[in-house]
Amino acid sequence: MVKKRLLLVDDDSRNIFALTALLKSRSFDCVSCTSAPDALTLLQADAGIDAILLDMMMPDMDGYEAIPRMRAIPTYADAPIFAVTAQAMVGDREKCLRAGATDYIAKPIDVDRLITLLSTL
Question: How confident is the model over 65-93, as a mean pLDDT?
Answer without folding.
Answer: 92
